[in-house]
């Protein structure tokens, strides 16, 4: 029997149980991953609360899409994945390549399909990605959702070029991945945060310019100044209603803004006239295909990049504690659980 | 002396005078166009009212960016443009190619630079586009601003493929150009309007599906139904606050929306969460480079496409009448002035 | 028992047998297609001769990748495909989206995997495409390989815009699909052939300009003349060594050439200097992902497009006769076999 | 009077004279650059020999397109460029943005228009680019032709992503720029050369893997091995007939090859079948628009990148010596002339 956390009768955090489940066997084309660490995303909390409706599946449901470990068993007909490989499951089993189509979220782990929060996870071999071997399991567990989302935004959709300027908001997991990937692409990065301490930690990860938005609520103004009045080439917006107006003010003519988060509200008003006359692109971004996960893993491996993890670690059973750490401002980087 | 309309001491429609000005001579690298027809854009009205601030220049100012006619004189050093050529001036003298950069609007005709509303217009030869010869001057005059904007949105930025589905809003000049260009690209087009009569005229221009949004305020619902629940590939949004929510509801996962107009309000609230989770692109669109104007003119010429013009024509002197015809709902296609 | 053609002990056309095989049952996630017609590609001939080495698999092997029919049986766990649906199998089971990756050809039908040349074909439901219902089975059978290849070349990779000019070579199946798709995208098409009769048939399919390359071996010269000396925007090259030099001569600065065929030799010499100084793109093209097949099918359905088929039809058993019809110059459009 | 080198009666290196010419005055919209250093490209040699025919203009002609210096005078109507600015002239005056169109080469310096090889060079202000201020004039002079060409190839056309693998051939100026830009984009670079000493110098510039192609003529084999049999994502081919076959062997399925040089012959035979079945792109590359020069200069400035210059410097008068240093194998990086 293996350990697992599972939503039992219904959605709701109070319905999650730590329990023993039968060990899974790999079916044809499947492998079983011995999960060593998992990570938490804002998406997971909403999923556990039933906030995705039909798209989130139905309990009993094992939560979380993020995790990493080693291949413990290989089913018949599997090619290219071997016992002992250090891997992470791709976010979705029905999303082989590129941007999402209507079926992409239907195969997502942690809802509607069972997720990573168990000692042994059976997955189709075609949904497994080789993890960079210089990483710990906790670091690799940070990659599937937040890592691929930031990669899709900065590298695949915004197609940042070296020498371009990128503005990053905050120090949540997606933002710090976006910072790191923008630096790997050779960009000049401005990062804003409400905490001087976090700004300094962001500098250590490569941020070139730092702005405390508590001190400078109109942060788009110094951003324009430091770019000779032009604005940055790209903004990674995670604040939604709290930030979109300033993001539009900070971006250059024909520039683009990744819309990734709704931390500050999900109904942002904005000045459409400026978006039109300056030919600005607003691009919603949601994770990415398995091909993106592979390209991201190759870059992380080559550059020996280490994802930023929240220092406080949580036991696997302490999902409640991990979820409490999620809200903006309380953490720096990815929140992970390790001990089963 | 030539006839011209000009804003004299200050902005404001009351400051426009019909007057005689000295005939211009072409400088080095310049040509003079004998303007035969001009067309009106919502932009022009705002410009004449002083609504663009510094970007709109200063009176005395000859308004309008749209016009067409024949080359009346050729200055020294001009190559590739000859006396008698049927041409239109490109929207801006400082926008040779592609999407706008910060200098693109600075060379725009009708503000900040003198525009088309005069019998003789001197222009750098590099800012002149050969007009399709099957068109009347009034039809060619419709192309520079609304034509290129719709072309940039549908063909260059959304890159519509044959067989894709496109939703068009209303029957203003940009919308009807977008309809025609989407059809030339082989798309299936849904058009919405508040008037059954205009819907029938849109059908004659190629629209495949028609919806009266007065009768069906939730028009995104039948649009999803006619696309097997998926949504259309692209929406050309001109309504802003009045339409953006429905546009998001009508577009497919990973689809895109051109943001072109603010007819229904310039501060649209919208459900950011759906834009994020469905990876939707919102693309502001403003005119385009001279290379786009040339590609558009080539397509119009090859297909013998005729721009849709409002039936009621206005005399050159009756600028006030033409401006009165502009508001949504009063016209179908481009409003033009012809008789000097 | 079902009828099938199968390579038995070894590669070689003499080893193909018409025989009875057990009726297949659909496994989990699979459907069975009752094949009504199949079509032949130059690839298939080479495959049957063993010309693809390891990539072609090993006998016993059922040849051909092209075919169409109706769903006869649906296995457990299949969603979105129903008994009676009119479908064609995608070219490869391991190519869900986009351009090929190393695994794309590994799941190809007709080598290395069993193909369409049998009355009943089991296929994963995820590798099945809904065929346009206005087509006959023979017409739909023409789509999987030649149709998708031409679509990838013209629509997805060259991204032809309306009003652009495209040059098509010959009247083989890929060339005629390229002609039809270029017309659906609104392009102006020049087609060259060695036969005046075939040129007239190409005109009926939409070709705007015709050149008999027997009469005009330097056909790139009139092509440049008819484009004001500039050259066409795109060339679909199927002749390889026999045509590449002229293709380069016919294409405009910054234009592109699809490299699809080697009919005139597989080691084309060419003037590299002109490719460099004129920034020309040469793009090898091989079929495409299932997403392309779906977009192509949507366009064919919307436009009621009918693939061009060689008039002479062959019986299923007369594979030898069908293969004899394949060489350039003997057919017009796709060669199909129908009667089992 | 200013010093200049000029082709006098006819093409041919013997017709170049070191002479005094009248100091130029800036016309409307023009600036005058006080040239401090110039650099030599293979293009320039061919131009001086008359090898470009009509495209090269007619003597008297001042050669060279590469140079850098400070603004000595500013004509009327110039905006955004000031006396004392450290600048280089863009390669062509008629190439504002993007890939070349038919008019792009018509405004090139050093043929058909007068070039940089003079103490004072008048240029339209719109054709001037601000040089990175950390560079010497000799370093900045290396940027206009070779720098922009490598930038266009690696950053704009191949769109290298971080973590991708790029193969670079040789240690000429374009190759070393391609190496540096690929590293700035976060790529993993394999560089081949015939000299162990040059390989070591390339390592110092960032090359990750080195192959001496004298020792390993089939260098594509170890390249495939080091990429798990897949091949690199991109090859920068400068060898033409001497390298194209191996370049095709070294690149992955759906990868791309920049065709930039013809050092090893201009009529490369190649295996077209592999290009087709593996969907490989061969992209001719020639310089780029002024917008690319500006983006490149921004990246060079931000990263404090220093172009690689051949150690041996030449006096301005010793053009013959500089040209002798150009052939492959004799130099490392850009050949420059400094003393007037």
Automatic annotation (TrEMBL), chains A, B, C, D:
InterPro entries hit by this protein: ADH-like_C, ADH-like_N, ER, GroES-like_sf, NAD(P)-bd_dom_sf, Zinc_ADH-like
GO MF annotation terms: oxidoreductase activity
Secretion signal span: none
SUPFAM superfamilies referenced in this protein's UniProt entry, alphabetically: GroES-like, NAD(P)-binding Rossmann-fold domains
Domain of life according to the entry: Bacteria
Domain Enoyl reductase (ER) intervals: 12-337
Name of protein: NAD(P)-dependent alcohol dehydrogenase
Lineage: Bacteria, Pseudomonadati, Pseudomonadota, Alphaproteobacteria, Rhodospirillales
């Amino acid at each position: 029997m293996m350990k697992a956390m599972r939503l039992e009768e219904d959605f709701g955090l109070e319905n999650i149980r730590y329990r023993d489940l039968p060990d899974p066997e790999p079916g044809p084309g499947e492998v079983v991953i011995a999960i060593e660490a998992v990570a938490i995303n804002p998406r997971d909390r909403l999923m556990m609360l039933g906030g995705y409706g039909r798209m989130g599946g139905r309990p009993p449901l094992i939560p979380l899409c993020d995790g990493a470990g080693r291949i413990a068993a290989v089913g018949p007909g599997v090619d290219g994945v071997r016992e002992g490989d250090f891997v992470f499951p791709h976010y979705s089993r029905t999303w082989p390549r590129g941007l999402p189509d209507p079926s992409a979220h239907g195969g997502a782990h942690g809802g509607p399909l069972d997720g990573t929060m168990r000692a042994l996870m059976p997955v189709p071999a075609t949904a497994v990605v080789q993890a960079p071997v210089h990483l710990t399991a906790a670091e690799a567990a940070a990659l599937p959702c937040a890592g691929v989302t930031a990669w899709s935004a900065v590298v695949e959709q915004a197609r940042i070029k070296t020498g371009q300027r990128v503005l990053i908001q905050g120090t949540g997991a997606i933002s710090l991945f976006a910072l790191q990937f923008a630096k790997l692409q050779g960009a000049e990065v401005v990062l804003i945060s409400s905490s001087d301490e976090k700004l300094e930690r962001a500098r250590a990860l490569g941020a070139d310019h730092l702005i405390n938005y508590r001190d400078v609520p109109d942060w788009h103004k110094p951003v324009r100044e430091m770019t000779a009045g032009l604005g940055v080439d790209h903004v990674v917006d995670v604040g939604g209603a709290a930030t979109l107006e300033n993001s539009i003010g900070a971006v250059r003519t024909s520039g683009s803004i990744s819309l990734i988060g709704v931390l500050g509200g999900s109904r942002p008003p904005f000045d459409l006239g400026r978006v039109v006359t300056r030919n600005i692109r607003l691009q919603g971004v949601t994770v990415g295909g398995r091909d993106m996960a592979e390209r991201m893993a190759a870059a992380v491996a080559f550059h020996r990049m280490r994802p930023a993890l929240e220092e406080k670690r949580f036991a696997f059973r302490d999902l409640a504690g991990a979820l409490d750490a999620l809200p903006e401002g309380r953490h720096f980087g990815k929140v992970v659980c390790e001990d089963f």
